[in-house]
Amino acid sequence: MPSHTDDLRLAHILADDADSTTMDRYKALDLHVATKPDLSPVSESDSKVEDVMRKTLARARPRDAFVGEEEGTTGWGVRRWVVDPIDGTKNYIRGVPVWATLISLMIEDQVVVGVVSAPALGKRWWASYGDGAWTGRALMSAQPCRVSDVSRIEDASLSYASLKGWEKIGKKNQWAELMDSCWRTRAYGDFWSYMLVAEGAVDIAAEPELNLYDMAALAIIVDEAGGRFTSVDGTPGPNGANAVGTNGRLHDEVLKRLE
C-alpha cells in the first residue's frame, strides 16, 4: 500500500483546527447543548468541528467522501474520511477533560490513517498504515506507542466505558466473568481506553455498542502499536458493531471468554 504521509499531515491540520474550536468553548457557561433523536447530547462544538472539517476537506480532497457523526455521509468513492468531532461529548459538556476528536481515512474497508486528539489532556495519538503508532503534541515531537507484553488474563488491566450494553447483546455474564478474572479494571472510558492499550498502560479494552466513527481512528492506532482491534465476533478492524482492543497476546482468549 502506498505511503499516506500527505494524508496524515492533513489529518493533523484538521485536528489542529478541531482543537482550536473545542477548547475555545470548553467549560463555557453559555455552551449550547441539544438532544439528538437517540437522546444523546450534541454540543454546538460537535457541529462546528464537523462543519469546519467538511469545508477543509471539500477544498483539499474534493473527490473523497466524508462520514461524520452529526451530518452523516456525503460524497462517494473508495476514499472516505471518518470523523467523530467529539468522542466523549458528555464529558466535554460537564468539564471532564477526557474527550477527543477522532479523524481517520479509510480506503474501502481498510483504515490507512488515524488521529486522536485530546487537547484538554494535552495529548495526541496517530498512525498510518505500516508506519507504526505515535504519541506527542506534534509530528516532530513524537514518541512511539507500543502495547504491553502481558500474556495472562489474570495479570491484565482492563478498561471500559460503561457496563450498560453487554446485557443487550447477550454478553452480561461473560463480561462480568472477564472482569472478575482480570488483575485490575477501571472505567477510563471511550477513546482513552484504547489509547492506553496502544501505549501499553492497559492490556484490554472493550465496548458492546459502537459505530464506525467511534472506532476507525482507534483501530489503526492499536494495530500499528502491535495490538489487535476487532469486533466481539472477531471481525477485524472497525467494521463490526462493537470493539475489542488488546495487546494482541490476550486477544484470542478475550474473544473466547466473550463467546
From TrEMBL:
Pathway: Amino-acid biosynthesis; L-histidine biosynthesis; L-histidine from 5-phospho-alpha-D-ribose 1-diphosphate: step 8/9. The keyword Lipoprotein does not apply. Mg(2+) binds at residues 69, 84, 86-87, 214. InterPro entries: His_9_proposed (IPR011809), Inositol_monoP_metal-BS (IPR020583), Inositol_monoP_superfamily (IPR051090), Inositol_monophosphatase-like (IPR000760). It comes from the Bacteria. Keywords: Amino-acid biosynthesis, Histidine biosynthesis, Hydrolase, Magnesium, Metal-binding. Its cofactor is Mg(2+). The keyword Magnesium applies. Its EC number is 3.1.3.15. It is an enzyme of class 3 (hydrolase). Catalyzes the dephosphorylation of histidinol-phosphate to histidinol, the direct precursor of histidine. Belongs to the inositol monophosphatase superfamily. PANTHER family: 3'(2'),5'-BISPHOSPHATE NUCLEOTIDASE, PHOSPHATASE. This is Histidinol-phosphatase. It comes from Kribbella pittospori. The gene is hisN.
